[in-house]
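Assemble and predict.
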Amino acid sequence: MAGNTFGTLFRLTTFGESHGKAIGGVLDGCPSGLELDLEAIQNDLDRRKPGQSAIVTQRKEPDTVEFYSGIFEGKTTGTPIGFAIHNTDQKSKDYSHIKDSYRPSHADYVYDQKYGFRDYRGGGRSSARETASRVVAGGIAKQVLATLKINAFVSQVGEITLQKEYKELDLTLTESNPVRCPDPETAAKMEEYIKDIKKEGDTVGGVITCVAQNVPVGLGEPVFDKLHAELGKAMLSINAVKGFEFGSGFEGVKMRGSEHNDQFNKDGSTKTNYSGGIQGGISNGMDIYFNVAFKPVATVLQAYDTIDKDGNEVKAQGKGRHDPCVVPRAVPIVEAMTALVLADFFLLNRTVKL
Amino acid sequence: MAGNTFGTLFRLTTFGESHGKAIGGVLDGCPSGLELDLEAIQNDLDRRKPGQSAIVTQRKEPDTVEFYSGIFEGKTTGTPIGFAIHNTDQKSKDYSHIKDSYRPSHADYVYDQKYGFRDYRGGGRSSARETASRVVAGGIAKQVLATLKINAFVSQVGEITLQKEYKELDLTLTESNPVRCPDPETAAKMEEYIKDIKKEGDTVGGVITCVAQNVPVGLGEPVFDKLHAELGKAMLSINAVKGFEFGSGFEGVKMRGSEHNDQFNKDGSTKTNYSGGIQGGISNGMDIYFNVAFKPVATVLQAYDTIDKDGNEVKAQGKGRHDPCVVPRAVPIVEAMTALVLADFFLLNRTVKL
Amino acid sequence: MAGNTFGTLFRLTTFGESHGKAIGGVLDGCPSGLELDLEAIQNDLDRRKPGQSAIVTQRKEPDTVEFYSGIFEGKTTGTPIGFAIHNTDQKSKDYSHIKDSYRPSHADYVYDQKYGFRDYRGGGRSSARETASRVVAGGIAKQVLATLKINAFVSQVGEITLQKEYKELDLTLTESNPVRCPDPETAAKMEEYIKDIKKEGDTVGGVITCVAQNVPVGLGEPVFDKLHAELGKAMLSINAVKGFEFGSGFEGVKMRGSEHNDQFNKDGSTKTNYSGGIQGGISNGMDIYFNVAFKPVATVLQAYDTIDKDGNEVKAQGKGRHDPCVVPRAVPIVEAMTALVLADFFLLNRTVKL
Amino acid sequence: MAGNTFGTLFRLTTFGESHGKAIGGVLDGCPSGLELDLEAIQNDLDRRKPGQSAIVTQRKEPDTVEFYSGIFEGKTTGTPIGFAIHNTDQKSKDYSHIKDSYRPSHADYVYDQKYGFRDYRGGGRSSARETASRVVAGGIAKQVLATLKINAFVSQVGEITLQKEYKELDLTLTESNPVRCPDPETAAKMEEYIKDIKKEGDTVGGVITCVAQNVPVGLGEPVFDKLHAELGKAMLSINAVKGFEFGSGFEGVKMRGSEHNDQFNKDGSTKTNYSGGIQGGISNGMDIYFNVAFKPVATVLQAYDTIDKDGNEVKAQGKGRHDPCVVPRAVPIVEAMTALVLADFFLLNRTVKL
């Protein structure tokens, strides 16, 4: 239970440091007989990879996944799917400056305290590079859930907020711009803003909204493993995430029960959806939607004061190729984690009735 | 993995329906040799129980816990602690109206869909009554973590928001008023507001803030079981919760990295604490603080339209003794779940170094 | 993971000490909609309980199970089934002699070493009394697996061995004698032998054979959770068990592959069944059969030398009401654990194919 | 929980098919700061690998392990250790004959039934090749447990039984002969016997005995996760294993309690050790010893009748390079699984006392 495994039946275990030989994982419990679209998986990896546009880090990591097992004649066999992404661009020199001092609001200090020492190259295990493995497994989960639609998009960058609800948006436009905001006008403003931030060597936070549609009724296991509790854990486990809300979320606090309650239609669907598609921890067939808050990336390309291992004050300078804002690349990660949660509950739900 | 177990090493499994014979649980993995203060546990139960003030449900449930095992001569033995809270006030008649129709924004509909039928009495397993078992186990967890301070309090009711940060507050005042808001002036407004809402037969949401202090550095397991990810799951598993944020949370999104980064002092503490005491998923020794959003209680004492099991439209009327606002009674639940998460990571952290 | 939970989806957690207030458990993951035959469960408890015949302990423990949750209108609801068996005959005085010294080949010494102290009354948690909770849960598992036949019986007591294979026996005769050996002639010898042993204040070991029939093809999860590996763990977790073998077992070691291989019939069944119904860790539809070895009960009613907590040599005397041979009462326990394993894999197997 | 993970805190997940691209695994929860002796690990792999002597399969698989993560500057970092063994000698043609028919007493039939189809090349996931990953992880576990001695050896091949107890043997002689029996005279007989069997194209079973010494008191978690229950599961999860017994085992059944009980010395050690170093599921500091029964290898190089997927009777012929007796190569596997179990309980035991 050392923390590198996610899921119960559809279960991913990942390994790998930012600048080690390879990252990768084992996906256990994927049902047999699934004809895998490997291109779709690689496509999700490409949406996450560095260097894809001017507003993300310019590192060059092709992030090509190699599958080792669990697939035969193009189909999953029901045995564990082992995979690896080999590191090719290991510019370790870029990170020599972090060997001897702690970067503020990174995991350097706590890793040293917890484990006694750390692989400091590129952040080691604490690097968001690990999430590439999640995108691979999530890509498979999406195919297990072929009838579902899972769409994440950027709904806020810094102070710039998308003023429309997801129902008013054409989510097919998400990939039409480098920010991954489906409203082209807002996307343009966000892109401009990120570029400005980048010029200053600074960073800014953002919010990703995710919508899961066509979800069958019944997913989620009360009482601790409520569907939204697992979704929340999944999102909060992504690097830089600071908050999660679903349905009416923090705003719903202000409402009265009489207006917040979702009245039923005759078919069991509801007239409103403040519940966000989940009631009592179980999906009710309505759209599931939630927001995920990302803090500004901690690595700023500026000089700063900090301490070294022995508590001495030292001066340091942020350098390297980093994201000024993490949300555009985090969109496929949010989708992947959503798919992992839903696939797990989808399988669990097969065991509930006699 | 049917969802009624929480934790890895310090592990709670609960059982029980609102109007069954008893609710209760088994706490496994509690270290041996802990001298238990049973009064403190009962005290937390009393903070959660119905009927304690004019602004909560007037149901009468003494909620007296009986311990069956795992304690000998006043101390924990290291074996599982079994316990039960017997139900005494089973006014089943109050709930006969929900047998044949679905209450909006309750779990009635999804339970029927998922399991084929449901124990409809008082909401059955989906009732927040289950959380009493969590308070028992959390009370033990608090004693395992005797050097830590875990304080939750109400920071918002409807539109009324506590305008001070937790550091400006005297948290010992939390219990001085029925709302459990440590700012007496704000508390008075909230109390008034809840009373008004109650008169209308309506309900309203709220926010609970929780602060954990004196937490040792090193708790939390990357990458999936980050400390805040487990805290988030723990909170989201509480009935009526719609959102979770820690540290700078959703507001932090708007900040620049250069201002959001927490600069180090020489002793490893930080000058600011936007990180909320957690970096890279691991506690860094600073105060952990987070907000939990609760929706308005779904049961309103008003007439409403809904459907029955067969999809027929029916008229129904909310009745019974319910909370107009859930947050005052949820304060000890938030503390209990926080303690459960921290106790588990506290034990796990003993296994990390050679 | 403190060791008091068994199973993944169909999952039992037990609690309770021999002479505490109650023993019991929580069975989570039982599918909804099962009409429970509570008498059948109590009947299995009666087969395990003390005082049922002249060759078992004469303690009086009615072992009546009380269900707290998870059952509504006679059917399982899919929520956790909490239950307790209250202790009524707590003759604590019988055990005062073990408070200050360690009984040889009991768990007294290791519990003190592991936990720092122990509930010494009647062996506390290490008492086989705990297995009553397993019999309750196993009784439910049997009903989940209504089409399967699970029959255990005594096949050896000391040197007296049942010389017939299970196929030659009429297993309905197992309950016809107090030894629970389905061969009346052998049973009579065993009974006589146990009575002799008892007169001497001594004890003796035995073997239980278990046969599971009508098991569907496909149960068991490679590679670590092979069906026979879980069965083996389940059996070895029963008090006093020293060995487990299935199919050809230890004898099969001497065979050639050419004779040991089970040739197929056209329908996938096999002409022989040295495999014991399991190949590659997965049930193949043939009868599953295995042997479980029980050591002689450690409590002998004789004087013995031992040590106290401080390492001083002391003299002690076995007393109380104990079993001269444990296997007659262990038959329903073996069946219960078999049913728990099979029910878990039965549910898991629903999740394997797309 | 699809069965490819072993252990709770010290936890191995494996992947890979016999003739896929690679086999490997992820070892999570290995404590940080362990200086790894990689040669010792490769040495264990070499003890398991094919082609090492005349009495084992003549396949050529170098089985060189490549580590991807979790190790930095020669030491474990506390993060997951990912590793792979790439397949180099993929003679797929050898196995084309098994594509269309089921080999008796193999997993071919049950895999097809369970998963709908199978990777038939070399047995796919059901091949014992998977155990190489266990040997890697077990090699690390041995180093975590540096003060323990874990020695397995062959004690029976077919009818030839080692007539000495482990205490009479010089276990350093185990590696002095290809059979891995520490008694040279018996080893010579076993070797001759295996060669004869091999000439006939037949196979034979065997028994491995394992001894763990210097085990601290207190390992093992009652009640389900008894030390010997986990050891039993670990052993039974190894391919071809049919039985497990520890301490007095099946023979102990015949003894009286008065002779079987292990009397204490003043230091808590015992005068005899019928308990096999485990009482109440917890190690008592005495030597742990147990026997593991292996059936004859199912692949015989002879003609046989069988069925195909559609239930037609077909004739087939065993071919390829196979082991006539599996026990010599299984010795390091037994040691590895023993080390995995003990390392896990070693870490768990740190969490037991306050």
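Residues 5-351 of chain D form a domain with the Chorismate synthase, AroC fold fold (CATH 3.60.150.10).
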